[in-house]
């Protein structure tokens, strides 16, 4: 397979300041992304099982609206207005005389997902508005058939490898998750970690929700924040020996998420493929949540990330990969592959060619 490739050298990043953010699973936009990712995966499988064919859909026009609450200590707060998840886009509920109860299906899947991933989100405080437009079935050709033409134009991006700061931010999130499960249940799932590395000075700013049920009073609130800060300082200093500044901004909540009272979320505003938002590095234009798993956007995002990871593993260099799909070309032949590797000469590199060709050959069997 002949590829129209562009490989360029990327100078070693030597910025005076680096800023990295990670949104936890309880962040409003991450709830949207994770919910929609779950729904699209399940809906594709259900369509296939029920109709014996692949049927397209798009649920990317979904948003999560904030509710209205007054939290209080020892779980005595009140919910006056529930948060509302508006599921938007288009799908199919009838094909060849067979009808699917779409509304029941999506509600069942959403509440099952919430029960498995969020301790305090349920039917009583998380309402669902089904605004999905039902249209005649759009059938999807199999991706593994040779010369299938791309269904859309799309630019996908993959990032291989992590900087020191990125590793610390992801590690802090993992550590907070372990605290929620094991010793600090007052920490809500809504966590946003922003790391800043300026010269050798590291600042970790954490915005998080506290669950009012586990907080006795104002004194206990301050004590829990202080204890958490001390734990985090010790944890981060085991990974970073220079100056470390931990800042915690906590909001008292009933559900452990800020969507109950102030923030809203929308599909595509969460983390990128590598679980981060790195502000000074190249970024993808948007994520593809809501599309069918076989949509060109999700296919190319998966391949771009796989290629970037494989190159990074082989060369131990920070790698960026862009793929551009053209509507008029087969999915196995992207119009452009753009590879950047930090501080590495890659022109006409056979290793990179082999990695790329191997991943795209899987689409043209």
UniProtKB/TrEMBL annotation:
InterPro entries: AdoMet_synthase_2, AdoMet_synthase_2_family, AdoMet_synthase_3. It comes from the Bacteria. Belongs to the AdoMet synthetase 2 family. This is Uncharacterized protein. It comes from Candidatus Roizmanbacteria bacterium CG2_30_33_16. The lineage of its organism: Bacteria, Candidatus Roizmaniibacteriota.
